[in-house]
């Protein structure tokens, strides 16, 4: 009889202990981030790394472009991003802000030191890697669907930067609007944006090759479509030609292979908000 009572109290104690730690984790971490939210943050970090690399690359040859790339990095971090990082690691949120500010300030000098920029870029890369570890659960980090969403979002970044590099206003690639892309000739008016577009599409190709499914009829075709998009940008083709490849090929095939449930015309709004009604979709 005493043994049964002891077992009963032990079982109750175990249940209460589990409940306590479950609640503790809830209060510490705030909420569990969805796959869509994780994909959005990963896209931002990928773009920040791209801009950091371009800033270093252009430093010696074009200091103006290098500074623009450095400033573009900060545009990928919002107050909400900092708040979410702070939920997991307050020290890291502060360190990210300070590191970004320090990196940009380096380019405000008349003649930034290449070694100083390299060191600060390395520090920024380390902080961004730590942000990924702190902010994104490993299960989502390894999730193929999340990775496919990142590919989709980086393709969206590619179009946005290519659009801007041609001097087109946001949204001017709407099929019902006229733009320089309707001509057979294009002129790059913002070299930094053009470089960002090239860097983004190259990264999208690399990321897709990491998750490319075998035995799927569309797998190789999607590789070809991504390479065609890169070719259009490298050859400075009209914007509508690049946009058509995304709408007609890249987005539909990503949808089919990874079940992303993206609306074709809305799918490549990189870093957009996602609905949370059961499926992660782009807005």
What does this 3D model show about the protein?
This protein has 283 residues and is mainly alpha-helical. It has two domains: 35-137, Four Helix Bundle (Hemerythrin (Met), subunit A) (Up-down Bundle); 143-270. It contains eleven helices and two strands. Strands 1-2 form a two-stranded antiparallel sheet. Helix 4 packs across helix 5 (90-106) and helix 9 (191-211) runs antiparallel to helix 10 (219-234).
H-E order:
HHHHHHHHHHHEE
Low-confidence stretches: 5-31, 173-182, 270-283
Largest sheet: 2 strands, antiparallel
Relative helix content: 55-70%
Strand order of the largest sheet: 1-2
Query: How many structural domains are formed by the residues?
Result: 2
Oligomer designation? single chain
Q: Classify the secondary structure makeup into a structural class.
A: mainly alpha
Describe, in short, the structure shown.
The chain is mainly alpha-helical. The protein folds into two domains: 35-137, Four Helix Bundle (Hemerythrin (Met), subunit A); 143-270. The protein has helices at residues 2-29, 35-58, 63-74, 79-88, 90-106, 114-135, 138-141, 144-165, 191-211, 219-234, 239-258; strands at residues 274-276, 280-282.
């Amino acid at each position: 009889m005493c043994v049964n009572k002891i077992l009963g109290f032990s079982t109750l104690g175990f249940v209460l202990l589990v409940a306590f730690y479950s609640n503790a984790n809830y209060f510490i971490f705030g909420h569990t981030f969805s796959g869509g939210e994780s994909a959005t943050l990963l896209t931002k970090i990928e773009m920040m790394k791209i801009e950091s690399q371009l800033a270093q690359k252009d430093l010696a040859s074009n200091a103006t472009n290098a500074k623009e790339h450095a400033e573009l990095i900060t545009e990928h971090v919002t107050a909400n991003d900092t708040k979410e990082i702070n939920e997991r690691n307050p020290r890291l949120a502060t360190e990210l802000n300070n590191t970004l500010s320090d990196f940009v300030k380096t380019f405000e000098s008349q003649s930034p030191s290449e070694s100083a920029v390299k060191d600060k870029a390395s520090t920024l890369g380390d902080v961004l890697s730590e942000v990924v570890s702190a902010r994104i659960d490993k299960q989502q980090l390894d999730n193929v669907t999340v990775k496919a969403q990142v590919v989709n979002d980086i393709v969206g970044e590619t179009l946005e930067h290519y659009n801007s590099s041609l001097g087109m206003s946001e949204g001017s690639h709407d099929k019902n609007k006229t733009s320089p892309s309707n001509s057979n000739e294009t002129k790059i008016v913002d070299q930094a944006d053009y470089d960002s577009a090239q860097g983004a599409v190259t990264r999208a190709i690399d990321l897709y090759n990491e998750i490319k499914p075998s035995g799927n009829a569309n797998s190789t075709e999607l590789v070809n479509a991504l390479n065609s998009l890169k070719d259009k940008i490298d050859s400075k083709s009209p914007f509508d030609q690049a946009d058509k490849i995304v709408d007609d090929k890249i987005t539909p095939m990503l949808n089919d292979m990874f079940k992303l449930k993206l609306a074709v015309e809305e799918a490549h709004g990189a870093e957009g908000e996602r609905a949370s009604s059961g499926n992660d979709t782009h807005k």
